[in-house]
Each structure stands twice: as C-alpha cells, then as structure tokens.
Amino acid sequence: TTATFYFRDLGAQISWVTVFLTEYGGPLLLYLMFYFRVPFIYAPKYDFTTSKHWVVHLACMCHSFHYLKRLLETLFVHRFSHGTMPLRNIFKNCTYYWGFAAWMAYYINHPLYTPPTIYGEQQVRIALIIFLFCQVGNFSIHIALRNLRPPGSKTRKIPYPTKNPFTWIFLLVSCPNYTYEVSLRPLGTDLG
Ligand SMILES: *[C@@H]1O[C@H](CO)[C@@H](O)[C@H](O)[C@H]1NC(C)=O
Ligand SMILES: *[C@@H]1O[C@H](CO)[C@@H](O)[C@H](O)[C@H]1NC(C)=O
C-alpha cells in the first residue's frame, strides 16, 4: 500500500527495422538523384546528362552497394534486441544520413567535378581495394555477431574469432564497432 510506481513516457515508438530502412533508403535514393542529375539540382543544360569520368560512375556503384548492403543486413542479418525506439530519433538520424549523402553527392556528381590528379588512377585503385576489404570485414563482423544470437532470442554472448580472418579483431576487442568504417573514405570522398 505504500509502494510508489514511477514510469516515464517515452513517447511514440517506432520499430528499429523501420528506422534503419528509412535511414539507409534515403541516402541510396538521394545519391541516385544527383547521379542522374535530375532537374533543379544543377543548371538546366545538365539535366539527365552523365559524367565523362569513370570514377564518378565507380563512386555511384560503391555508394549504392554500401547502402544496399546496409538495407539487406537490416532485413536479413541483424537480430535486434529492442523492438522499438522513440519516434523522434528517426528525424535526428535521417537529418544526419540524408544530409551528408546529399552533400557528398552534390560535389561528386557535379558537372564541373574533376577526378583526383596528384596520384590519379593509382589513388582510385588503392582506395577501391581498401573499400572492398573493409566492406567484407564489416560484413564478417555482422555475421559473427548474428551467429551469437539464436533466432528470436535476446541473448548476449562474448564474441570470439571464428575461422574467418576478418573476425580475428575479436582477439583485441569485443565490439569492433566502426573498425572497418575507416574504409568508407575512398575516392577522396566520405561514403560513411
Ligand atoms: C557496438 O556493437 C555492439 C555489438 O554489436 C552493440 O551492442 C553496441 O550497441 C555498439 N555500440 C555502438 C556505440 O554502436
Ligand atoms: C559496419 O558498417 C556500418 C555502417 O557503415 C557501421 O554502422 C558498423 O559500425 C560497421 N561495423 C564494423 C564492425 O565496422
């Protein structure tokens, strides 16, 4: 009879999966709008023209691949322990992701863009290799973490290296969040 019950209203909730899909779907579509130079972004004479630099097309492939991977991982790899998060978070997160995607895409796909000159194609090739290496590393960690949690459960276990060398980083840290993120700056751009 003397107990007091406190509770906190966290406001409207939205599922994590919805948040992730909105966060990652936006940059994918926004980037492509700049890539295809839809009207009202650059001068009208450039509408629907394509860049003559192959690195611009490569950047579009890398960017799209990155976000497709994140979307597919959200749907098929990650096992979320929390069902929902506050609705307001989606506005905060989307401002960040969508804003940066548009900012990058504007310059990379600009009709006056010039490819890197100092190290030229060498720079692009090395950046691409690092990019691919880190995408595989990132994916490996996500698979390893997924396998620690049986379907439908919320268990948390300590991750250990598996046979996949990309997961050997678990020898040093248990949550190598963002370890492979360093790669997402290839081609002189930040794809993170
Ligand atoms: C880092 O990764 C772990 C395991 O996936 C996760 O529980 C944790 O929330 C992550 N931390 C951040 C800051 O993202
Ligand atoms: C993998 O990439 C995603 C998205 O860029 C990032 O949130 C995550 O922390 C990265 N994980 C690792 C292990 O680098």
UniProtKB/TrEMBL annotation:
What topology in the membrane does the UniProt record assign?
Multi-pass membrane protein
Q: Where in the cell is it found?
A: Membrane
Q: Which Pfam families match?
A: Steroid_dh
Q: What is this protein called?
A: Trans-2,3-enoyl-CoA reductase
Which PROSITE patterns does the annotation name?
S5A_REDUCTASE (PS50244)
Q: Where is the 3-oxo-5-alpha-steroid 4-dehydrogenase C-terminal domain?
A: 84-182
> What family is it from?
Belongs to the steroid 5-alpha reductase family.
Gene Ontology molecular-function annotations: oxidoreductase activity, acting on the CH-CH group of donors
Organism field: Hucho hucho
Which spans are transmembrane here?
Answer: 14-36, 95-113, 125-145
